[in-house]
Amino acid sequence: MSLSPYWLRDNCPCDGCRDPRNGQKLFQITDLPEDLAVVESTEAGGVLEVVWSDGHRSRYPLEWFDERGEDEQGAGDGRTEQGKRLWRAADFARGLPEAEWSAYVTEPAEQVAVLSAVRRFGFAVLRGVPEVEGQVLKVAETFGYVRETNYGKLFDVRVEADPNNLAFTSAAIAPHTDNPYRDPVPTLQLLHCLRNESDGGDSGLVDGFHAAALLREESPEDFAVLTRTPVPFVFRDRATELRAEQPLIGVDAVGRIREVRFNNRSIGTLRGLSTAELDAFYAAYRRFAAITLRPELQLDFRLGPGDCLIFDNVRLLHARTAFEQQGSRHLQGCYADLDSLASTLAVLGRRATALDAIEELFDGEGAGEYLGEAVTMAQHMLQAGALAEAAGAPDHLVVAALLHDIGHFGGSSLELMQGQDNRHSHTGADWLARWFGPEVTEPIRLHVAAKRYLCAVEPSYRAQLSEASEYTLQVQGGPMDTEQAAAFAALPGAADAVAVRRWDDQAKDAAVATPGVEHFRPLLSRLFG
Amino acid sequence: MSLSPYWLRDNCPCDGCRDPRNGQKLFQITDLPEDLAVVESTEAGGVLEVVWSDGHRSRYPLEWFDERGEDEQGAGDGRTEQGKRLWRAADFARGLPEAEWSAYVTEPAEQVAVLSAVRRFGFAVLRGVPEVEGQVLKVAETFGYVRETNYGKLFDVRVEADPNNLAFTSAAIAPHTDNPYRDPVPTLQLLHCLRNESDGGDSGLVDGFHAAALLREESPEDFAVLTRTPVPFVFRDRATELRAEQPLIGVDAVGRIREVRFNNRSIGTLRGLSTAELDAFYAAYRRFAAITLRPELQLDFRLGPGDCLIFDNVRLLHARTAFEQQGSRHLQGCYADLDSLASTLAVLGRRATALDAIEELFDGEGAGEYLGEAVTMAQHMLQAGALAEAAGAPDHLVVAALLHDIGHFGGSSLELMQGQDNRHSHTGADWLARWFGPEVTEPIRLHVAAKRYLCAVEPSYRAQLSEASEYTLQVQGGPMDTEQAAAFAALPGAADAVAVRRWDDQAKDAAVATPGVEHFRPLLSRLFG
Known about the structure:
alpha+beta, Double-stranded beta-helix, Hypothetical protein af1432, six-stranded mixed β-sheet, 20 helices, 17% strand
């Protein structure tokens, strides 16, 4: 295997190279010596072990070399044309990507579907969003942060007496992106319909990436001209003077379409180009504009009260038909950004994966023997969770009780029975810390110590330990001395750990029926974060 | 003169092509016919008049063809290396670009100096910023909008027990930009020092554009590699999973350095490149990183309590020396964006220009005859302003009184005396609307109508008009009839217009001394917006 040495070393996963708490690198690339080389490399047990010329050792799981491993999107950061589904209007003949607000806010899978649609198609519609002023900000906050602009945190789209922008008149508006004169441009727009009783005022969307891809196909030279000509976008009113120079079609470092800015209204004066260059730009611009107006590209629909459209403002062009000044039409909008939306989507995905993994552990390994007790590990933990729930414990303690022994999984339980402390409380807490906060993980981390603590301060406690538990007590270090017990009691989470410990001790009754792990899924979902 | 026809037509300044209220274009580029051509063009009186093949006529002031006219920056949108002053540490041997907070918030010229420094050098320091938690948000709001991220609207930089980011530990941090894993990345960062009593914890800044320019000079091929290799930046914690693929050095469509992202800690795994490509990337990356560490590039200074550093996060790299965990160090930071900062700067510049223009009008043309009255136009308006001020009128009415006849300027007064209504009230109101709100412009717009109204409803009013004013009354349409008077009285601003009118009528006394126009400058400054 021929590997680039600096690349390989830069990805060393050891605790000295990466902060285990947050995964950030702890060294600078310039810290590495000149002429760094691999001195020795061995593959064993699914791991590539490398000894470096500076003496450092790295261990890489072989699966890490599988490219598809890390990059779940299969498409870099998911922002270029690669990984998008380019569309035309007919592709939505059977309906728009949409969901009910009530389902969206309660069911993670619905939220995943909506946010995925925004990433994949560039838009989605939420139905039944409460028709309350300012609600659009709450919609944005379900996946990200509102981006304030000169139009405010929130803007009202209705006819204004002295508009500073064509959007606030009753005129038709051709397909365009918003705020091209901003840099950074807001990458998402939300429009929430409160009223639409006027004639006209329908919405239209055009996939700007598709239009750009058509231009590239039909006239590659025009496409090239638009990607390499910086266009000055300008906006001016009494309190604002914005100017951004960006091409109409932005491509990434390797030429993939990444951003479309298209707004005829706010293109300022191109300067410093020759007449031939201006002619070429205007020919390409007119050709691209004509493509965006092709009827087969424009998806028309009408936003009704309670509908909230979320769309990608650096990909989709949006349009509006003219409407009667008389009829009442009122939308509220705001801007937000795609990066946070993608993060929310990734975290939701990761949580769904975690739930599945937890359920699998209960159903699979969990069916195994529990350190000599009469119950399986899964029964033991389910009983502990059920006991906590029955005791009216707060959510985080029910979860802590349910998952307190998860560190036993992974085939290491046997080691404990063979006389080694496998530190299962720490292993479990660390694993769970990827998904749960310290209110869940710390009682788990301390639940073994809590046993040693209780044995010290409650003589009657030790007497009731099971035989297996009395055995592991010795492995774990025996009862605490007075000083240790005082130090333990002072720890944050000590009281919670003691509570978890007591449910742990009671949860070994083979005669008790327990709910399945799926019973706890909604609770686990709520506690993520 | 050979001009690109579509370019020329796209810039037609007529009211049919551009909304006069906001300057936005009212036509689509696709509305223009195929084979658009100039049929006839004539130059006269400083104007190029063009007749088009579709019958449209355009008039372009010749000065508009002067490239420097529109683009005041001389450098596009001012975001690339062009128009920046690239620096090394020694350039600030005599001091940093800085200002006192108290001056910054009260004197527009100080604010201009600070914001210009951020645009030109990439940073500035405010001193004496109140040492109050949350104050950094108020600093950001003086020129733009706070950009919320996963770190919150505001983040605290001090040692944390379980940090999700190295910034919240006491470790030294090498020069880097923040949030490279966001797209859009926040383009500005603010750091406000509340306490810094620890040993160490000094700040360092490096001009990343300069470092990139040095790389281009010393090793053009390495520079090219860094501009064309998308780098995955990643950040992950329990609630966040951000990923952005961008090159370390971003250039604009014509190759100018526009953005630097440099953060060794959060560079993820580059995938999909050959070993040779990875070797080339790492060689270039190491060379660039070494340049950023050159001591002559790093400007070191210490933030003390009350200091607030504002810096360009897509140009400057910032660093921190290690500090003692014991000593108390507390900074608060937030992110914002360069586009709004540039807008604020442009508007401040425009207002300063407007103030100068107004003062010049008073001093220049204002010294001319005022329609047959005994006072000059300037004396007349200054008297009106002083009368309003003496009457304790609100600011907007003092300004309206001071500027009510500004529409007479520009050489058109004579036309009025020759028997034409030059609609000076409208001309003045429209001109002033570029800077003032309707509370100032509407009373001015209505002040001629107010005379006709008062003549209708107050017989004694007409009796006291000056001879010249009685003459112009006829030109302006004579007294209103009953219906007109009722309609006028119902207009918003009518009462204010009547008040302005009365000061107008009284302000014709050659014997009265008036303050100079500079007396009103602070008031005019306050009223802009």
